[in-house]
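Deliverable D4.2, example record:
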Amino acid sequence: MKKGNVEELLSKLGNKIDQLVQEARNSDYAKKIELEKRIEELKKTKDKLESDVQNFFKEHEGELNDLGKRGEDFIDEVKESIESLIGKIKKS
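Output generated by the structure prediction step:
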């Protein structure tokens, strides 16, 4: 999973938390207490996930960059092979 995808998921989680906060504001007291507890749990989970993701990308930055480079090289090789094959087909 790419860093951008993870950040997008965390952003969506943040938006859901905001929606729950809004719902809690418009709820009766008992439901509000229940929602506030759940919101706090979700905020802690989101914070931990953000920290874990940042640590993962820091710890594995070299490997991820290498993997990305190898992926790009592979795509370039496939592209060249297809272009060569198309050239051979056009000549025949």
